[in-house]
Design a protein that fits this description.
- The complex is a heterotrimer of chains A (502), B (335) and C (168).
- Chain A has 502 residues and is mostly helical.
- Chain A has helices spanning 4-13, 16-33, 40-47, 56-81, 90-101, 105-139, 143-157, 165-179, 205-221, 242-263, 269-284, 297-312, 314-320, 326-337, 346-349, 351-381, 387-406, 409-427, 432-455, 462-465, 467-501; strands at 182-183, 190-191.
- Chain A has a domain at 4-139 and 210-405.
- Helix content of chain A is 73%, strand content 1%.
- Chain A has a two-stranded antiparallel ribbon with strand order 1-2.
- Chain B folds into 2 domains: 41-137 and 259-324, Bordetella uptake gene, domain 1 (D-Maltodextrin-Binding Protein, domain 2); 139-257, Periplasmic binding protein-like II (D-Maltodextrin-Binding Protein, domain 2, 3-Layer(aba) Sandwich), CATH 3.40.190.
- The termini of chain B are far apart.
- Classes of the chains: A mainly alpha (502), B alpha/beta (335), C mainly alpha (168).
- At the A-C interface, α8, α9, α17, α18 and α19 of A face α1, α2, α3, α4 and α5 of C.
- Chain C: It comes from Aeromicrobium camelliae.
- Chain C: This is Tripartite tricarboxylate transporter TctB family protein.
Chain lengths: 502, 335, 168
């Protein structure tokens, strides 16, 4: 490959004017992305018009800024208010909010910014060197591979969260059920829609997540025990300490790799990556019980992974012309407007544009890090507002935010319903986390499974004979069997010991 | 202290009611038809898109909104109201005020194909709207992975196996065109529905599905890169951007399916307003920027009058209904 | 917050949260919740058969929901049977009715926002939460409610131009 255009591209991107636009993009993206309901896709769509009146290169750089800012904006609400803006920051809620409650919101947001930066940069570097190569591997992921991957993800769900496994499984089942609501994409049959046209496309992720996590928590806190949630948590520090950074460095490194690899897969890669990174950290931790109680690795791993995945999901877009998720689809549209047609020919025929896009991602990522650190203090101050005042603000943001997702009053009602459900689940000792995660993966699992069955003519052995899905099935078996095997081993060891004693 | 605030509350409640009846400045107002026609455009004209941001319908709407708003002299916010392939937005438009302030970009497949796949009360009838103008058409093209070495329908027939064809979903032109072609050409096949054009195309690129019927704009980069081979297009005439590929009709199979888009207004919108809107859209169609947009996205202009759109779509629906009955095709998968 | 909140190690924290936990409701509450899910799962299974299960070659619309329904029935039946082991459910307390009030204001908002815009129900909601649920002063509640609505108007209507129904 010819890398001279890479270097040349940088001289364009680094012009002060372009940097200024990128700066504005990050700032605006972050400010709008912080509003719950406005996830990255919606944020980029809303802010799209402001990029239309500037030069194409500048517009693309600004878009990159908006993209990263919007991604990070979702993290802020996950940590501070327990309102994940999009599916890939759901797991951040677990430990991020626990840290915030404990006065360590600054550490959580800081480590998320650092992790996002590292993950994003690792991904861009890898994208720079391997994009065309890895694109080919992404195409080998068909329905069977996704089916196994999603199943693996859902099995990991049970290990996420801190409550009982059985209750987590029941909650996950409910999540899968909720994901079936809507018009069936295979037969056109209406499933559990109760003749409501508003439900034909199923339930959106945002009202479920905002209702169960956000409103559920606020309603629960109305019971007002021991002033736990109403008193502003004492700030310990605005930024992560050296120890905390050290503690999370491994998680950030592993999160980068997991995020990069899964993000390449079109469809659901970013969501899977944050869950996989979290589950993996929990698994390899010596104190898995800390997860869900404010473990900094539990913030660092998923936040690194989802930003790495968000970045590497540009690979299928730029090299194959396939938008991997809603946010990338909006960016796709924006690039088309700027005269960049992402696709297999972009890199060969318009290397300048290709590298323009890639280089602006470097810049956007760096600016995000530079800007988020000083802003964290300001955002964290939100938490010092009295709980009794913060609560109605959060409720109103949630209700209005739920509306803005699809401009639908119906979604406001949905978010109330899920708020009530979230409260009840909490009262009855069920964690909402597994429900939301299973919901996110549910439709992916079902459609991939059904597509595979159609393609295999109903013969399930196809899952094993295809090379990639075969390996994934093996991984699945190991995940299921490992705990059982371990139990068996310890029992045998104990018996051996006992025999020795005898 | 307490009483003061109670009184204040009462005052503000009354004020609220007064404002409510006056409906000043908000987006909830209502007025008579004559009033509407006289005052049009009275504030922003909302253009609703029944699909997610980023898709081709969305891009078209956004490309038009700019120049149209320049011509009308009011802003034209583009609002995405995704759901049920646009049916949700259409149902909302039906009940909107017929004053020309709310419009939507309506898809032909919603009015001419989806009714064959869903229950009657969910079907959208183009006659329930005033159509302001046609916009453009987008052709479906049947593609296969270049590695397969197939380039004609006969190649598909001689493949010697049941072919899997990826469609972009239930009740879409993609599904109808491939179902019809496979039936008419007597090729053994099985449908694999995906959620949209990109995943269907990916399945062909990854060789998980044998062929896919997708919109030309989506397939073109892959066709140009030689990754997929176009077999036929499903329009009446050859597509101007792909004129060496035959149509299905030329290949001997009467399959004619297209995607088209139009601007719809609520039924009963006064004719003066419709005329004013049509003129504004015509002016937008004339701009160089919009014409470049069409070329970039491989769209064929179909800037006909509203009546013509209704005529085109109604005919298409009748014809599709006949064909699906004749060949015993069930788009709804056994409903 | 109390001085004990200086607890920094995860173990201390967990202990502290444990101490702050509300009264447990006992296993019966878990069993009841699980029984509801069993019924739900059974209903889903019935509905799935009606949707059509199809075959393995051509899975119908009901196949997947049927599997989920069965999973729900099995897992929650196990939960009912082992409910004795769970003490993580919480009893409803006298202040639980506040939750109902809070939820009521939200539902009210959802019901009327389409017809009269978000300003009035938003202000009402904010006021109720501040004054009655939050026990703030009348002054702060009134000013707060108005200020919140104005701020939301500025952000969502003027700055972002979202089509949220608004009166003004």
């Amino acid at each position: 490959m010819d890398y001279s255009s890479v270097i040349q591209g940088f001289s364009v991107v680094l012009q002060p004017e372009n940097l200024l636009y990128c700066f504005i993009g990050v700032l605006v993206g972050m400010l709008v992305g912080v509003l719950p309901g406005l996830g990255p896709a919606a944020t980029v769509a809303i802010l799209l018009p402001i990029t239309l009146n500037v030069e194409p290169v500048t517009a693309i750089i600004m878009l990159a800024g908006i993209f990263y800012g919007a991604q990070y904006g979702g993290t802020i609400t996950s940590v501070l208010l327990r309102l994940p803006g999009e599916a890939s920051s759901v797991v951040t809620v677990f430990d991020g909010y626990a840290m915030a409650r404990d006065g360590r919101a600054g550490s959580a947001l800081g480590i998320a910014a650092i992790g996002s930066f590292v993950g994003g940069t690792v991904s861009i570097v890898a994208l720079t060197f391997f994009a065309p190569f890895v694109a080919r591997f992404a195409l080998d992921f068909g329905p069977p591979e996704y089916a196994v991957l999603a199943l693996l993800g859902i099995l990991l769900v049970a290990s996420v969260g801190s409550g009982s496994r059985l209750k987590a499984l029941v909650a996950a089942g409910l999540g899968l059920l909720l994901a079936t609501v809507g018009r069936d994409g295979f037969t056109g049959a209406e499933r559990f829609t109760f003749d409501s046209l508003a439900l034909t496309d199923g339930i959106d992720f945002v009202p479920i997540a905002m209702g169960l996590f956000g409103l559920g928590e606020i309603l629960y806190n109305l019971e007002d025990r021991s002033g736990r949630a109403t008193a502003p948590p004492k700030m310990v520090r605005a930024l992560p300490s050296k120890d905390e950074v050290k503690q999370s460095s491994g998680a950030i490194g592993r999160g980068s790799v997991i995020g990069f690899l899964l993000g390449i897969l079109p469809g659901g890669g970013a969501v899977l990556s944050s869950m996989a990174a979290y589950a993996y950290e929990k698994k390899r931790s010596k104190h898995p019980e800390r997860f869900g109680q404010g473990a900094i690795e539990g913030v660092a791993a998923p936040e690194t992974a989802n930003n790495a995945a968000a970045t590497s999901s540009f690979i299928p877009l730029l090299t194959l012309g396939i938008p991997a998720n809603a946010t990338i689809a909006v960016i796709f549209g924006a690039l088309l407007i700027q005269g960049v047609t992402p696709g297999p020919q972009l890199i060969t025929e318009h290397p300048d544009l290709f590298w323009g896009v890639v280089n602006s991602m470097y810049v956007g990522n760096i600016l995000l890090l530079i800007m988020s650190i000083p802003l964290i203090g300001i955002f964290v101050r939100i938490l010092r507002v009295r709980g009794t005042i913060l609560a109605p603000i959060t409720v109103l943001i949630t209700l209005i935010g739920a509306y803005t997702v699809a401009n639908s009053v119906f979604d406001i009602m949905l978010v109330c319903v899920f708020g009530a459900l979230g409260y009840l689940m909490k009262k009855f000792g069920f964690e909402p986390g597994p429900l939301v995660l299973a919901f996110v993966l549910g439709s992916l699992l079902e459609s991939a499974l059904r597509r595979s069955l159609i393609l295999f003519d109903g013969d399930p052995s196809g899952f094993v004979t295809r090379p990639i899905s075969g390996v994934l099935v093996l991984a699945l078996v190991i995940v299921v069997a490992a705990p059982a095997l371990r139990a068996l081993m310890t029992r045998r060891q104990n018996r051996a010991k006992n025999e020795e004693l005898v | 202290m307490t009483t003061t605030f109670r009184r204040l509350g009462a005052v503000s409640a009354t004020a609220g009611l007064v404002l409510l009846t006056a409906a000043c400045g908000g987006n909830l107002g209502s007025k008579s038809a004559e009033e509407a026609a006289e005052n049009f455009p009275d504030g922003p004209v909302t253009l609703t898109i029944g699909q997610d941001p980023g898709g081709s319908t969305d891009l078209i709407g956004r490309a038009l909104a700019g120049p149209v708003s320049d011509d009308l002299g009011v802003s034209m916010p583009v609002v995405n109201r995704p759901g049920a392939n646009g049916a949700l937005a259409a149902k909302e438009l039906e009940s909107a005020e017929a004053d020309g302030q709310s419009l939507m970009v309506i898809n032909m497949s919603l009015a001419a194909i989806t009714p064959l796949a869903v229950s009657e009360d969910q079907a959208v009838d183009v006659n329930d709207f005033e159509i302001v103008t046609g916009i453009s058409t987008d052709d479906y093209v049947l593609v296969t992975n270049a590695d397969n070495g197939w380039s004609t329908i006969d190649d598909l027939k001689n493949a010697g196996k049941t072919l899997s064809y990826a469609t972009t979903g239930v009740g879409t032109g993609s599904q109808l065109s491939s179902e019809l072609l496979f039936k008419l050409a007597e090729i053994p096949g099985k449908a694999v529905p995906f959620d949209g054009g990109a995943p269907a195309l990916t399945a062909v690129l990854g060789n998980q599905a044998d062929v896919a019927s997708v919109q030309l704009g989506e397939a073109m980069p892959q066709i140009e890169a030689g990754k997929v081979t176009p077999i036929v297009t499903f329009a009446k005439e050859r597509n101007q951007y792909l004129d060496d590929v035959p149509t299905a009709v030329e290949s001997g199979y009467e399959v004619e399916v297209q995607q088209a888009r139009a601007i719809a207004a609520p039924k009963g919108t006064p004719q003066e307003i419709l005329d004013e809107l049509k003129a504004a859209f015509d002016a937008a169609f004339e701009t160089q920027a919009y014409q470049d947009f069409n070329t970039d996205n491989l769209l064929t202009p179909n800037e006909v009058s509203g009546d013509e759109v209704v005529e085109q779509w109604t005919t298409a629906l009748d014809r599709y209904r006949e064909l699906t009955e004749e060949y015993d095709i069930d788009l709804g998968g056994g409903q | 917050m109390s001085a004990s909140h200086e607890a920094r190690t995860p173990e201390e924290l967990a202990e502290q949260w444990e101490a702050e936990k509300p009264p447990a409701a006992g296993p019966l509450s878990t069993a009841a919740a699980a029984a509801v899910v069993v019924l739900l799962g059974a209903a889903v299974m019935v509905a799935s058969f009606r949707l059509g299960v199809g075959s393995v070659q051509q899975p119908g619309a009901g196949l997947w929901p049927l599997m989920i329904g069965a999973f729900l029935v099995v897992s929650s039946t196990v939960l009912v049977l082992t409910a004795r082991r769970f003490d993580d459910a919480e009893r409803f307390v006298s202040s639980s009715w506040l939750v109902l009030v809070g939820l009521g204001t939200m539902v009210l908002f959802a019901l009327v926002v389409g017809t009269i815009g978000f300003e009035i129900p938003g202000a009402v909601l904010a006021f109720v939460w501040l004054r009655f649920l939050g026990k703030e002063s009348w002054r702060l509640s009134t000013i707060g409610a108005v200020a919140m609505v104005v701020a939301f108007y500025l952000i969502f209507v003027l700055a972002l131009q979202t089509p949220i129904p608004h009166l003004f």
